[in-house]
Amino acid sequence: MPIPKLGNVKYKVKRSSAGLGLFADEPIKKNTWIIEYVGKILNGKKEVDNYPANKYLFETSNTRMIDGSARSNTARYINHSCKPNCEAEIFSGRVFIKSIKPIIAGEEFTYDYGKEYIDEHIKPYGCRCTHCKAKK
């Protein structure tokens, strides 16, 4: 499958319900490629298994991860939501974020981080996504 072409999407980092978040600066159409999740590439089972844990590790296979903890990785500011407006897709070991519904200007980009991440990092403290906060 070919690597997605990123649109010229305008966004900004600002305060959100979960700390900092990434927000649309303009309306975004459904199925728009927004941003790539980038960082140090960890290759091989030994390197992956021995790498210090952090909440910005994105697993792309059993033996490959991206450490997206650097602030230059703007995609790291996309927060989890139980009712997301985006999804992450992996192409040849690279991670791209795509809108799965129309997004209005000023809306926060979110995607579902997955069960393993939620169980390890979110569940112990409770989900702070806008969907879960509204249910409380």
Short summary:
With 136 residues, the chain is of the alpha+beta class. The protein has helices spanning 45-50, 115-122, 130-135, and strands at 11-16, 19-24, 33-37, 40-43, 57-61, 64-67, 79-80, 86-91, 94-99, 110-111.
What does this structure look like?
This is SET domain-containing protein. InterPro entries: SET2_Histone-Lys_MeTrsfase, SET_dom, SET_dom_sf. Residues 4-114 form the SET domain. GO terms for molecular function: methyltransferase activity. It is found in: Chromosome. The termini are far apart. The strands form four sheets. Strands 3-9-8 form a three-stranded antiparallel sheet, with no helix packed on it. Strands 4-6-5 form a three-stranded antiparallel sheet. A two-stranded antiparallel sheet has the order 1-2. It has 136 residues and is an alpha+beta fold. The mean pLDDT is 91. The protein has helices at 45-50, 115-122, 130-135; strands at residues 11-16, 19-24, 33-37, 40-43, 57-61, 64-67, 79-80, 86-91, 94-99, 110-111. The chain has a single domain, classed as Beta-clip-like (Beta Complex), CATH 2.170.270. Helix content is 15%, strand content 34%. The protein contains three helices and ten strands, in the order ββββαββββββαα. The longest helix is centred in the C-terminal third of the chain and has 8 residues, at 115-122. A hairpin with a 2-residue loop joins β8 and β9.
